[in-house]
Amino acid sequence: MIASRQSAVILNESQRAEIVGEVGLYRNISRLIEHLEPIDVENNEFFAYTLEGNRLDLSVENDKIKAVKAAAKDDHSSHVRHLLEVAAERELKRWKHRHMRGMNPATMSTEVLVALIGFTW
User: How far is CA 71 from the centre of its chain?
Assistant: First the structure.
């Protein structure tokens, strides 16, 4: 099991939530915040979620980035899973010279996907 599954967050660098951009995986919200730039948050260039499927609201107050779980109880777990699978597919393409053919992210557990992708920060 992922030691930090409860605190890990995933970031989709895209101006539209449904479009998968660059995907980053962070150990916790603090590490995510350290990576982001206020101007990009203000320009709505990111969507962040917990691995459990909660959306995080990103905002800037006094040049400091804040990330808190969204008040709405919408379940984004299927979208989080999709982001993890796309990131894993991209990682497998980078590794194709290491005989990683035949691996299918859709059949991998969340723990295996996280291990394959690795933490950004």
Answer: 19
